[in-house]
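tool=predict chain=A
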Amino acid sequence: MKSYKELYFIPVLLFCLSSCQYWEDEKFVATVPRECNYNIIGISGPPSAEPYVEIQYNKDDGHGNNVLVSKRVSPPFRFGGQKVNILCDSILFISGIGSHHKYRIDGYKLVIHHSYEETDGEYLRIFNHSTDKTLEYFIAGSREMETEFTGCSGFPLIKTMPAVYYKHAPIYYLLFPDKKYTQNVQGDVSDCNDIFYFEGNRCGDLTVEQPWSVDSVMKLYRSEYRNSPDIRLDVESYWSHLGRMTKVVHSGDSYDIPFQSFYGTILPGEELKGNISLPLLATPSIFDDRLDYR
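tool=predict ok
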């Protein structure tokens, strides 16, 4: 028979073990306003003497508010890259031992409130007023390049870069070579040969002398979505690992936000409106609804 001391000791031991258990959690702090870049949208279609494409989107008014831009245009046309105002949930990463009343702050994230009403940062409306012309559209990231510590190649390691790449060249830089990063960088942290070249007139594996046209970029997207064996567009599937766009978005992998529509068509008399499948905001990763990785 167990002694009284033994019977007393067992629950005390179990209590001590449970109270000393390590835990991790997330803690909501507040909903906060933030500025964010709107991604680039290109539109292609048959020419016309009269503008037949109506576009609507928002931009920052300089005072923390969104102001609606509405215009009629003729393709080819591109827009985006402007600042917009959004709301984010500020979430702390916390951990501790035992009681949840005492914890350590390990970091934080900003999780975007996705909303597509007329006053929201992600608002979009593209209306095809033609009765016989089909439009095409593409979406390319506009996030500014960020680097961190030096990689094993001797070049800075990419932290974030504008999404959608053709031969290691961000589409954003093909459209806007004057905004191109001017220093070579390393992509995959574990691959010393994964270099993105930007010095001089280099842009990835390409040489860029002048801006690419909307129609030239649209050919890349069209070919990618038709599974061309010769033309391939890449997106960042996780951290610095690139994967072919159409394979990544149709892979069935679970992302927080299922962005899939980097390219599509708008039939005569129809419209495209902002929705959760369109990657309209320049987040650190094109598949993430976080605004910040800190």
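Helices lie at 4-19, 171-175, 214-225, 245-249. The chain has one domain: 26-292.
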